[in-house]
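Reviewers asked in the last cycle whether our approach scales beyond single polypeptides. To address this, we selected a multi-component target totalling 231 residues and predicted its structure end to end. The input consisted of the following lines:
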Amino acid sequence: DADVTQTPRNRITKTGKRIMLECSQTKGHDRMYWYRQDPGLGLRLIYYSFDVKDINKGEISDGYSVSRQAQAKFSLSLESAIPNQTALYFCATSAGAGGLNEQFFGPGTRLTVL
Amino acid sequence: AQSVTQPDIHITVSEGASLELRCNYSYGATPYLFWYVQSPGQGLQLLLKYFSGDTLVQGIKGFEAEFKRSQSSFNLRKPSVHWSDAAEYFCAVGLPPGSGNTGKLIFGQGTTLQVKP
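The resulting structure, written as structure tokens, was:
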């Protein structure tokens, strides 16, 4: 089984709808991240969490919220989806301070907002 | 602020030819450096990483990268490209411990590699 899983893998929704993307990991890592990928822009950090009680905004958090339900689960929500949130979303994990920043990525969720 | 630049958006090489993908970073000290590859429809996979020591780093799939402090560069190379190397490649930097290390990575814009038969 994959170490980092994301559901759904693909989602088409309409403007104004609430959407939740889910991420689960079996690596036992404390740190989890949500990125979005847009052509020509690379990956940009939306939110990150260093443990269940620690949530931090990334560089592009507006319009998004997250929930760290457990060490292994980190969900990303779009409260009211808009077309410019159409993107490929990745979840990633890393070990704690000794982990030297290496991150392990899920397969991605392709979200289309019409 | 730290930043990463990959000057080449697209590169096309013939199968069997050598490859070099460029990466430049902006940071006041030596960061942790990474190259990731994203195959079509897949997540990102780590190719190699540099933390300290030998400036020539070997990775998976026959890739290597060389850290050049004087040029703030970490270019990725492969002596002979295979058709299966067609993918998008990302360079990333992270901060070493003791320098505000938050575990975050800063990614470059990515370079798409096309391989001609």
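Residues 52 and 68 of chain A are 6 Å apart (CA to CA). We regard this as preliminary and will revisit it once experimental data from Aim 1 are available.
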